[in-house]
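Researcher: Sequence recovery benchmark, item below. Answer with residues only.
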């Protein structure tokens, strides 16, 4: 996947909602379920998504699950920065729109949110409690939280 730059679309909320994982996979395979860190370290482009309607359409729950993980796989945890990068820039890359969206750069659409706190300084529980205070689309304020 890394060699061919095949994108892995990951749904982090499954890590925290699939409470049956250890029972169904057993002790040998369980640590390798949802190998986010391993994929990233191998150079596989990753993107994060919710898999709505199976899971909540909630960006903060998605990021929190990528950062918090489950007790059976802490070695596959992403940092807040890596999770945000995968969610934003990884998604733009997967959609072949990384020249237009995914990061705040000159020449790209200015789609962004102002958050209630800095997610790079928070743990998973705190990330899950974040809220968007302002939403901008193409540089224009469209809503206040």
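Model:
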């Amino acid at each position: 996947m890394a060699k061919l730059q095949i994108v892995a679309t990951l749904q982090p909320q499954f890590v925290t909602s699939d409470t049956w994982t250890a029972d169904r996979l057993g002790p040998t395979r369980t640590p390798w379920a949802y190998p986010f860190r391993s994929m990233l370290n191998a150079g596989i482009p990753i993107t994060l998504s919710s898999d709505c309607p199976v899971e909540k359409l909630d960006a903060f729950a998605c990021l929190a699950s990528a950062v918090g993980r489950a007790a059976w796989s802490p070695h596959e945890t992403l940092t807040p920065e890596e999770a945000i990068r995968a969610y934003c820039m990884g998604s733009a890359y997967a959609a072949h729109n990384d020249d237009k969206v995914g990061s705040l750069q000159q020449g790209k659409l200015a789609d962004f949110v102002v958050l209630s706190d800095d997610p790079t300084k928070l743990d998973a529980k705190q990330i899950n409690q974040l809220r968007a205070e302002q939403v901008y689309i193409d540089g224009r304020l469209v809503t206040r939280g």
